[in-house]
Amino acid sequence: MSAIASPRNAVVAARAAFGTSSTGQIYGVLVLVLVVTWSLILATGGNINLTNTLVRSVALGIVAVGQTFVILGGSLDLSVAYQVSVTAVVASVLMDGDPGNIWWSVLAVIALGAAIGAINGIIITAIHINAFIATLGTSLILRGALNATFDNYAGEVPDEFQPLGYSRFLGIPYSVLLLLAIVATGWWILRYTRFGHHLYAVGASEETARLSGVRSGRVLIGAHTICSITATLTGLFIISRLSAGAPWVGPDGNYDLESIAAVVLGGTALSGGRGGVLGTFAGVLILALLDNAFNQLQINTFLKDVVRGVIIIAAVAIYALRQRRDVR
C-alpha cells in the first residue's frame, strides 16, 4: 500500500483539520456581537435576558450539531425541518396524554428518525444521488405525508413531559443542559473517536479516504443518521413546550436553512473536512443574539434577513480568504 493509501494518513489528515480550526476566532466574533447587540439594547432601554436567549437557541442548536456532521463529510440534509415536524406529530399522537406512553414513544420516534437518516445516507452513497436532491426529495415526501394526514395540532403531550421545556436544575433550564450535553458529545465524537477522524478524512477527500481503507459510505450513512436523531431531539423539545405536535413546527423554524447557516457561520467548510461543533455552537449563539437585538430594536423583518444574509456571506468570504492564504 502506498504512503497516500495508509490508514495512518487518514487520521493525520483529521488531526490537521483540528489543528487549523478557527474556533478561537469565531468565539472572538461571538464576543464582539454580544457586546455590540447588548450595548444597543441597553442604549434603547431594552432588557437583557441571557437565559431566554439560550433557550431560544436550543431547537436550532441541536439540529445544527447534526447538520455539522453531514457537512463535515461533504454532504448536507435539507429534510431536517420536516423531520422535526414528523417527530412532533408522531410523538404527541403516541403519547396521547398518557405519562406511561412517554418512554416508548420517545424511543419510537428516535428509531424513526434514525431510519430516515439511514435511508438518506443509503440513497446518497449507494445510489449516488446528490445530497441536495436526495434530502430535498425526502423533505417533499415527509411534507406531503404530514399535510395529507394532519391540518393543525395533533395528539396531546402529558404534563410530565413538559419539564424538558420549562423546568430548571440549579437555575439552568433542562433544555439548555440538553443542548450543552449534545454539543459536548458531538465534540467528543469528532475529536476522539475513529468515526470522527474518518468523517474528517471523507470530507477532506473521499477518494483519498477510500484508498486509505476508510469505508466512506458507512461513515456518511452514520453522519446522516446522527443528523436525523438530532432533528428528532429538537422535535421532542418543541412539543415539550407546545404540549402538542403540528406539521408546521419544523418549516416555521426554518431549521433546514438556518442550521446550514449556523454551521457555515461557525467556520465549517461546505466542501467538508474542516470545522466542528464548537464553532457551530458559536454560530447558533450569534444568530440568537442578532435575533434578540432585532426584536428588541423592532427592526423590520425583511431588513433582518438582509443583515443576516450579509453577515453570513461576509463570514464565508473571510473563511475562504483565510483558507487560500493557509494553502499558500
Set down the secondary structure blueprint.
Layout: H1 7-19, H2 23-43, H3 50-72, H4 80-95, H5 102-126, H6 131-149, H7 163-166, E1 168-169, E2 172-173, H8 174-192, H9 194-204, H10 206-211, H11 216-242, H12 249-252, H13 255-265, H14 277-296, H15 301-327
Antiparallel strand pairs: 1-2
Helix pairs in contact: 1-9, 2-14, 3-8, 3-11, 3-13, 3-14, 4-5, 4-6, 4-11, 5-6, 5-11, 8-9, 9-11, 13-14
Provide the descriptors you would attach to this structure in a database record:
ABC transporter involved in vitamin B12 uptake, BtuC, two-stranded antiparallel sheet, disordered N terminus, globular, 2 strands, mainly alpha, 328 residues, 15 helices, 75% helix
Explain how this protein is built.
- The protein is an all-alpha fold.
- It has a single domain (7-327), classed as ABC transporter involved in vitamin B12 uptake, BtuC (Orthogonal Bundle), CATH 1.10.3470.
- It is built from 15 helices and 2 strands.
- The protein has a two-stranded antiparallel ribbon with strand order 1-2.
- Helix 1 (7-19) packs across helix 9, helix 3 (50-72) crosses helix 13 and helix 13 (255-265) packs across helix 14.
- It starts with 6 loop residues before the first helix and ends with a helix.
- The model is unreliable at 1-21 (pLDDT under 50).
